[in-house]
Design goal:
Elements lengths: L17 H7 L2 H19 L17 H12 L7 E6 L8 H15 L4 E6 H4 L11 E8 L3 H15 L1 E3 L2 E6 L1 H35 L2 H25 L9 H29 L4 H28 L7 H32 L10 H4 L6 H7 L15 H11 L1 H16 L7 E2 L11 H12 L8 E6 L4 H12 L4 E9 L4 E8 L6 H11 L6 E6 H35 L3 H13 L1 H12 L4 H4 L7 E2 L2 H31 L2 H30 L5 H33 L8 H10 L1 E2 L22 E2 L2
Parallel strand pairs: 6-11
Antiparallel strand pairs: 1-3, 1-5, 2-3, 4-5, 7-9, 7-10, 8-9, 12-13
C-alpha cells in the first residue's frame, strides 16, 4: 500500500491551529508521554476497589443517620452489623453442649479488637434470636469504625468463626457481611464483563471499519480512559467515600464513549484520505470538525452525570465522580492520542482489511459505505436520496403523522408499568442465592420470628424518669402497625433507646408509615428514629427534595447547548422531550422485569417487589446523557445541510442518511458493553446494565430513526425559528458546522461526505 505524502506540521493551505500543531508536531513523543502516564495510572489505580464502599444509600444529614451514629457510640449492641448463625442440628440450641459452645464463641467474639455490643440468644433469652424450630440461634455484634476498616476486621476474624465448632456449625451474616460479599462479587463480575466486552467489541469494530488497525484504535482510547479513571477514583477515595458500583460505570462509559468518539474521529480521517488529502491535512480537518463534536458531545454527557452531585448519598455522587472523569479522559484521549497515532499511521490506518475476501472485488470505498448504512453500496455523496437510511427517512416523512403518533403511543405504552413503581432499599437479595451471607439472611428471614438485624429503633435523649420512659413506651406500642415495643435500654442519665417491631417486612410500606407515625409521637425528651425503614424514608425524602434541582440542571443546560448548536428555539425543546421518551421503555422494563419478577428465572435474580430508591435517578442521568450524545450528532448533520441548502426536508433526510448507520453501529457496540455489565450476579448492576442497553438501542433505532424525522417533518420550517434577540445571540456565540469545510484543496472533493462535528463561532 503506497504511503500518502505527508505535509509537514504547520504546512498546507491554511496551516494548523495551535492545538493541532501541539498534537501532531511530535506524535511519537505524545504517544510516549501517554504510555508513561497510563503506566503511572495503573500503579496509582491499583487496589482502588478495596478502598471503595458498597453502601452509600443513606443521607448523611438525615435524622436516621444521626440516630444510627449516636446509637453506635453509646449502644453498639443496638445496631448489630455482624450476625453469627449457630446451627445445633436436631439436638437444638438449648442442648447443654451446644449452649456451652455458643457461649464460648460469644466470649471470644467479645474479646476481639474492634468488636462491640456482643449479645446472643444464650445471654438474653430473646425469642427473636432463636429460630422457630429451635435448631438455630444468633450471636449478634457490631464491628465499629468506617466501612473499609470494619471490612478489614471482618476479613481477619471470619475464618476463625465460620465453620464447625464442636456440636455446632457457624455461618456469618448481617449487613456488614452482605456488603463485603457484594463488593467481592462486583469485582469478580466486573473482570468477567471486561473479558466478555473487549473481544466482542473488537469483532464488531472490525465489522464496522473492515481494518483491524482502525478497529484497535477505539479500544486503545477506551483502555486509557478506564485506567485513568481508576487512578482518579483512587485519589478521590482519600477525601470521600466512593461506591464500588461506580467501577461498572467506568468500564461501560470508558469503552462505550471512547468507541463513539473514536468512530467519529477515525471515520472522518479516513474520509479525508479517501478525498485525496494528505495525512496532516486530514488530521487538521478531522480535529477542526469531528474533534469539536467530540468536545461538545462530551460536555452534554458530563452535564447529565454531574447532576448527580446535587444528591447527598455517596452512592449517586460516586457515579458522578466516575462518569465525569471517564467522559473527559475519553474525549482527551480521542483528541490527543488518536490524532498522534493517525499521523504516524497515515493511510496504513486502513491496513489489515479483514473483509477483503468477503467483498470480492467491491471497491475499497465499501467500508465507508457500510458506516453510512447504504447497504447497496451507495457511497456518501452519490446523490441517491432513496438509498439506505435516506430511503427510510423519506418513508417516515411521507407518513409523518402516523409514525409520530404510533411511535409516541408505543413508547408511552412501554413506560406504563413504571406508574406502579415501588421504591425500596437494597438488601442481601441483591446477591445470588448461593452467596454465603445471602443464605444466612434467607434463613433468618424465613425461620425466625423477628429480624435480629432489623426493626425500628427510637433514640431518646434528655433527662427522663422511669415513669416517663414507661409512658412513652405505651404510646409507641399503640401506634398503628407496631407489633410490640421493647425498652428502654439506658446508658447513664439522659440516653436510652426503644426497639419497635413493625408489621410486615422490615422495609415494607407498613414499616415506612410506622416510621412517620413514630416521629410524630409527643415525648418529654428528644427522639430520633432509625432502622432500615427509617433510612429508606429519609433517603426518599432527600431524593424528592433534590430531584427538581438535578432535573433543572440537565434540562436547562441541554436547552442551552442544543440552542447554541442549532440556533432554534423549538429543536432544544424537541430534543429534551424526545430524549425523555426514549427512556420510557427502560423504566417500564425495570418495573416489569426487576420489580414484578418477570424473566427473573431467565436472568437469574430474586425479585423483591421494589426498586432500590436511587437506581431510577442513576439510570435517567446515564441514559439521558448517552441519548443526547447521539442526538447531537444527528442534529449537527441536519443543521449543517440546512445551512448549506435551506431545504428543511432534504436536510432531515440527509442527516439521517449520513448518520443512521454510524449511530446504530455505535449504539450496538455500547449496548454490547452494557449487556456485559448486565451479566453481573448483583441485581442492581444487572438492572443498570440491561436497562441502559435497552435505552440506548431504543434511542438509536426508534427515536432517531422514526420519531425525530417525523416530528421535524410536522414542524416544518418553523423548526428553525428563533426570535431576533436570540438569533443575534446565536450568530455571535453559537456553533456552526461550516467552519471546518474547505480546510484544504484536497477536501473540496469531499463536499458531500459527512462532517462529524461542530466548530465554535464568534
Amino acid at each position: 500500500m503506497a504511503e500518502v505524502k505527508k505535509t509537514p506540521p504547520g504546512g498546507g493551505a491554511r496551516g494548523a491551529g495551535g492545538w493541532t500543531r501541539f498534537v501532531t508536531a511530535r506524535p511519537r513523543l505524545t504517544l510516549l508521554v501517554a504510555l508513561v502516564l497510563t503506566a503511572l495510572a495503573v500503579l496509582a489505580g491499583g487496589g482502588v476497589a478495596e478502598r471503595m464502599g458498597s453502601g452509600g444509600w443513606e443521607d448523611p444529614a438525615a435524622e436516621s443517620t444521626y440516630a444510627t451514629e449516636a446509637l453506635e457510640r453509646r449502644f453498639p449492641g443496638s445496631q448489630p452489623n455482624l450476625l453469627l448463625l449457630v446451627d445445633a442440628g436436631p439436638a437444638g440450641v438449648d442442648a447443654p453442649a451446644a449452649a456451652a459452645e455458643a457461649r464460648a464463641l460469644a466470649e471470644r467474639l467479645d474479646a476481639e479488637p474492634g468488636v462491640d455490643g456482643v449479645g446472643s440468644y444464650w445471654s438474653t433469652g430473646s425469642p427473636a434470636l432463636r429460630s422457630e424450630d429451635g435448631r438455630q440461634a444468633v450471636i449478634a455484634a457490631r464491628i465499629a469504625g468506617e466501612e473499609k476498616d470494619a471490612a478489614a476486621i471482618l476479613d481477619r476474624i471470619a475464618p476463625e468463626y465460620r465453620g464447625a465448632h464442636g456440636p455446632v456449625e457457624v455461618s456469618l451474616g448481617g449487613s456488614l457481611a452482605v456488603r463485603h460479599e457484594m463488593q467481592v462479587v462486583i469485582q469478580e463480575d466486573l473482570l468477567r464483563a471486561e473479558l466478555i466486552a473487549l473481544p466482542v467489541t473488537l469483532v464488531l469494530l472490525v465489522m464496522v471499519f473492515g481494518s483491524a488497525v482502525a478497529a484497535l484504535l477505539p479500544l486503545g482510547v477506551g483502555i486509557v480512559a478506564i485506567l485513568g479513571t481508576n487512578a482518579v477514583l483512587r485519589g478521590i477515595t482519600e477525601f470521600t467515600d466512593v461506591s464500588v458500583f461506580a467501577q461498572n460505570l467506568t468500564t461501560a462509559l470508558g469503552l462505550g464513549l471512547a468507541i463513539d468518539y473514536a468512530l467519529f474521529v477515525v471515520r472522518r480521517y479516513r474520509e479525508e484520505l479517501a478525498a485525496g488529502a494528505d495525512t496532516y491535512t486530514a488530521v487538521r480537518t478531522t480535529l477542526r470538525t469531528a474533534g469539536r463534536t467530540v468536545l461538545f458531545s462530551a460536555l452534554t454527557v458530563a452535564v447529565s452525570l454531574a447532576a448527580m452531585l446535587v444528591f447527598p448519598q455517596y452512592f449517586l455522587r460516586s457515579f458522578a465522580y466516575a462518569g465525569i472523569a471517564v467522559v473527559l479522559l475519553a474525549a482527551t484521549a480521542a483528541l490527543t492520542l488518536l490524532p498522534a497515532a493517525l499521523v504516524l499511521l497515515g493511510d496504513r490506518v486502513n491496513a489489515l482489511d479483514l473483509r477483503r475476501l468477503l467483498r470480492r472485488g467491491r471497491p475499497r470505498k465499501a467500508a465507508l459505505d457500510a458506516l453510512d448504512g447504504a447497504g447497496d453500496g451507495a457511497g456518501a455523496g452519490d446523490g441517491r436520496e432513496d438509498a439506505g437510511w435516506g430511503r427510510a427517512a423519506a418513508l417516515v416523512m411521507r407518513r409523518a403523522p402516523v409514525f409520530a403518533v404510533l411511535t409516541t403511543a408505543g413508547l408511552v405504552l412501554l413506560g406504563l408499568p413504571f406508574l406502579g413503581v415501588e421504591l425500596g432499599t437494597a438488601d442481601d437479595r441483591q446477591l445470588p442465592a448461593t452467596a454465603s451471607s445471602r443464605v444466612v439472611q434467607d434463613q433468618l428471614r424465613d425461620g425466625f420470628p423477628g429480624d435480629p438485624g432489623g426493626g425500628i429503633t427510637v433514640l431518646a435523649e434528655g433527662p427522663a424518669t422511669p415513669a416517663q420512659y414507661a409512658d412513652y413506651r405505651e404510646l409507641i406500642a399503640g401506634v398503628d402497625g407496631v407489633v410490640r415495643a421493647e425498652g428502654p435500654v439506658t446508658a447513664g442519665s439522659g440516653h436510652a433507646y426503644f426497639t419497635v417491631v413493625p408489621e410486615g417486612e422490615a422495609v415494607g410500606a407498613e414499616a415506612q408509615r410506622t416510621v412517620d407515625e413514630l416521629r410524630s409521637v409527643p415525648a418529654p425528651f428528644e427522639t430520633s428514629v432509625t432502622g432500615q425503614a427509617a433510612v429508606l424514608v429519609d433517603s426518599k425524602d432527600a431524593l424528592a427534595e433534590r430531584l427538581p434541582w438535578a432535573a433543572a440542571i440537565i434540562v436547562l443546560v441541554t436547552l442551552l447547548l442544543v440552542f447554541l448548536l442549532t440556533g432554534s428555539v423549538l429543536i432544544p425543546v424537541q430534543a429534551v422531550v424526545l430524549n425523555a421518551l426514549s427512556l420510557t421503555a427502560m423504566f417500564g422494563a425495570v418495573v416489569w422485569v426487576f420489580q414484578d419478577g418477570h424473566l427473573s428465572g431467565l436472568l437469574g435474580f430474586t425479585p423483591t417487589g421494589d426498586i432500590e430508591t436511587t437506581l431510577p435517578v442513576l439510570m435517567f442521568c446515564v441514559a439521558f446523557g448517552l441519548s443526547m450524545d447521539y442526538g447531537v450528532f444527528l442534529l449537527s448533520r441536519i443543521k449543517e445541510e440546512y445551512d448549506a441548502t435551506g431545504d428543511h426536508e432534504h436536510s432531515v433526510r440527509f442527516g439521517l442518511r449520513h448518520t443512521g448507520g454510524l449511530i446504530t453501529a455505535a449504539a450496538v457496540i455500547l449496548a454490547v458493553v452494557m449487556v456485559a455489565i448486565g451479566t453481573s450476579r448483583v441485581t442492581n448492576t444487572k438492572m443498570l446494565g440491561l436497562g441502559v442497553a435497552l435505552a440506548v438501542l431504543m434511542d438509536a433505532m426508534v427515536v432517531r430513526s422514526l420519531l425525530v424525522p417525523s416530528v421535524m417533518k410536522l414542524t416544518g420550517r418553523l423548526t428553525w425559528w428563533a426570535p431576533g434577540p436570540l438569533r443575534r445571540f446565536h450568530d455571535r456565540f453559537g456553533i456552526s458546522e461550516s467552519d471546518g469545510a474547505g480546510e484544504d484543496p484536497g477536501a473540496a472533493g469531499a463536499a458531500e461526505t459527512p462532517r462529524e462535528a461542530v466548530s465554535l463561532r464568534g
